[in-house]
Design brief:
By secondary structure, the chain is an all-alpha fold. The protein contains four helices and no strands. InterPro entries: Lambda_DNA-bd_dom_sf.
Length: about 70
């Protein structure tokens, strides 16, 4: 997931602030502040982990946290 993908995901989900996106993902606002430009405050890269990209997909699809009750 690229920083641009992440920004598009946030817009798609209607998360109007980084704080709301951070709460939805269980991350800090500072982490989201790093993901969107793709760099940390110290200038080092801030790659978006695959696990976060998967969580973004789950939120975009309105999937509940695992274990969801299947068949109910």
């Amino acid at each position: 997931m690229t920083p641009e993908d992440f920004k598009n995901w946030r817009a798609h989900c209607g998360f109007k602030s980084q704080r709301i996106a951070a709460e939805a993902l269980g991350l800090s606002v500072g982490t989201i502040e790093n993901y969107e430009p793709g760099v940390r405050r110290d200038g080092n890269p801030a790659p978006i982990p695959y696990t976060v990209a998967l969580a973004c997909s789950a939120l975009a699809m309105n999937l509940p946290p695992w274990p969801a009750k299947l068949g109910s």
